[in-house]
Write a structure and sequence with these properties.
Hydantoin permease, binds 4-fluoro-L-phenylalanine, mainly alpha, 77% helix, 449 residues, 0% strand
Length: 449
């Protein structure tokens, strides 16, 4: 087995994990699913899921990875043995690899939209554009499979190229500069929305809790999104934890990662909804929401051509630093077992995901008709629903059960090094709150509760 790599510092781990967590999920997906699910009540369920389920599961994932210092599949194998549990638990690693494929196969296409928008902004397409005009530009892009394929391909190559080189070379240095920049850009946009949008309505939309708008499906989507946005339930954070130094505090690192991720999502909401209302757009417009609203803001802003370009560049980067973590669990496994070199493994996984991504590209044009839908969902919707709302929470449930019930308490105590009060809190969360939370939401969704 090859020697396992390590981050150079704690900060490097933090930034890589934040890089994985903060991505299209925060800026693109969170606003549009909030819009589709009626606003405030959905946001509240999402925040509860982050706090009660997401944070404990993230602590568990990082801890498992760091203890075993292996890929998620091997981590689950080795730790199950060490703890005297069944070999079944490696299923967590395998399902994670599969979920990673699925997610990357649409993630890359959407990241491709952001890449196309870098060019559009830079060339002045959005200058003084109207809401309708912006909708047309977006419609033109997603209606054109060839253009989408080009960007999808480019993004996949960028992702694989980084993973092929290993974890330290490049990405560590990249995220240190780019994550703070993304935050600054979002703050500028929030300030713009504050001045030019219907800020009060946007705020009320995000934070007034009208539970009559909350369907069972919304609750499942909110929980799925809590997993998606924190990169949980598929081994991405586990594999990053495996590169962590032994003396780093896991609890406080995880807390900071989760807070950073949540703040970015809420800021994105605060930048977008005021503009949605000011421009008479529909909050439930779906995946195009951000790509239609923000350009109108940039188009009206002094220096908007410049800011818009920078914003979409940063969105691409946020997506990029997330996408690499989708591939890493599979690549880590193939390369640690010397089945093939890291580079070869990365290209192979990328190729599979790229092929599956062709279906995503077509979901927005040639396959967008009803005759191509299953249960009212396009191929893209189905992959997203299956991976985000079912596989990630299931993976998280299994991780919580493994740590809380199959393994001994001494494992968590040794790794986490918490005061006894804080440990008890974690223990309660990982044994009861998180697994019951996921189980109740699932049972509810299938009509059994
Ligand atoms: N957390 C990423 C986002 O919010 O965009 C998406 C993601 C990355 C999900 C890595 C899962 C994962 F393993």
């Amino acid at each position: 087995m090859s020697v396992h790599a390590q981050w150079s510092t704690r900060l490097a781990f933090m930034l890589a994990a934040i890089g994985s967590a903060v991505g299209l999920g925060n800026v693109w997906k969170f606003p549009y699913i909030t819009g589709e699910n009626g606003g405030g009540a959905f946001v509240l369920v999402y925040l509860l899921c982050i706090a009660l389920i997401g944070i404990p599961v993230m602590i568990a994932e990082v801890m498992l990875g760091r203890r075993a210092q292996r890929s998620p599949i091997s981590t689950m194998q080795v730790l199950a043995k060490e703890q005297g549990a069944s070999g079944f638990w490696q299923i967590v690693g395998w399902s994670g690899v599969f979920a990673g494929f699925l997610i990357l196969s649409f993630y890359s296409v959407i990241a491709g939209w952001a890449m196309a928008y870098v060019i559009e902004s830079a060339s002045g397409t959005f200058n003084a554009i109207s809401g309708d005009g912006s909708g047309d530009v977006f419609g033109g892009l997603i209606g054109d499979p060839q253009r989408l394929m080009i960007w999808h391909t480019l993004f996949m190559i960028m992702t694989v190229a980084v993973v092929a080189r290993g974890i330290r070379a490049g990405i560590e240095k990249l995220v240190v500069i780019l994550m703070p920049l993304l935050l600054v850009m979002l703050l500028i946009l929030v300030a713009y929305a504050f001045n030019s949008g219907e800020f009060g309505r946007g705020l009320a939309y995000l934070f007034s809790f009208d539970f009559s708008k909350l369907s069972t499906d919304s609750i499942i989507v909110a929980m799925g999104h809590a997993f998606f946005t924190l990169s949980l339930g598929m081994g991405a954070i586990m594999v990053y934890g495996s590169y962590m130094q032994k003396n780093t505090s896991i609890g406080s690192s995880v807390l900071m990662i989760a807070i950073a991720d949540t703040v970015v999502a809420l800021l994105a909401g605060l930048a977008i909804f005021p503009l949605v209302f000011a421009n008479g757009l529909e909050p439930g417009a779906g995946p195009g929401l951000v790509f239609v609203t923000l350009p109108t803001a940039f188009g009206a802003m002094p220096g908007g051509q410049f800011f818009g370009t920078v914003f979409f560049v940063l969105l691409v980067i946020a997506a990029w630093s997330s996408a690499i973590s989708l591939v890493e669990p599979a690549v880590a496994w193939l390369s640690e077992r010397d089945i093939m070199s890291r580079a070869k493994a990365s290209w192979m996984i990328g190729l599979f995901s790229w092929i599956l991504g062709i279906g995503t590209v077509l979901s927005f044009n040639l396959w967008s008709g009803d005759e191509y839908k299953v249960m009212g969902k396009t191929f893209f919707d189905l992959k997203d629903y299956l991976a985000s709302n079912i596989m990630l929470p299931l993976g998280g449930l299994l991780i919580a059960l493994f740590v809380g019930w199959a393994a001994k308490a001494s494992m968590s105590k040794d790794e986490l090094n918490l005061s006894s009060g804080t440990f008890n809190l974690f223990w309660l969360a990982i044994r009861f709150v998180a697994p019951l939370g996921v189980a109740i939401i699932f049972l509810n969704a299938v009509g059994l509760l």
